[in-house]
Fold:
Amino acid sequence: RNDAVAEHLRARVAMWAPIMATMVGAPPQTVLEVGANVGNNLRALRQLSGAEFFALEPNAKARQKLIGDGVVPSGNVRDGFAAAIDFPDNSIDLVFTSGVLIHIHPNDLLASCREMHRVSRRYVVSVEYFADTPTELGYRGHDERLFKRDFGGFWLDNFADLRVVNYGFAWKRLTGLDNLTWWVFEKQG
Structure:
């Protein structure tokens, strides 16, 4: 379902280019994707950054594809979930999710974001579906699997040391990606 194909890679590169441009003065040297799946975002980022990449992914088949395709070295791929990230405090310059926070139950969302915040040395990026108010949607015939909200507001409301560097929108009609809102936050102090 999440195979890396050229068309999707081009769309991801186009989405990530303005995100990475916001960090041009202090580009991240290390990047962790939380919920990397087969690495489509990391594949795009490799075209935009010379950073060292890391991946946290609970699915064993996806982890093997990340390693087998050479997206991330095996030593940089970890098994796990956002609520318990196996990296030291302030160890990664940029920590991000793309289409992952939407699948975390609202009762577990703050714990997952705390872990991302803890691990991030400087930047946190979220690329997620947006809704003005928290909204639960059915997902592949299941309840309690997809939750939209204002994730940017959630980050700001819960982490006083974050400031918005930039935000934007990837419109499905032009990008071929889902309608995605992205936020770049920088830790202060």
About this structure: The chain has six helices and nine strands.
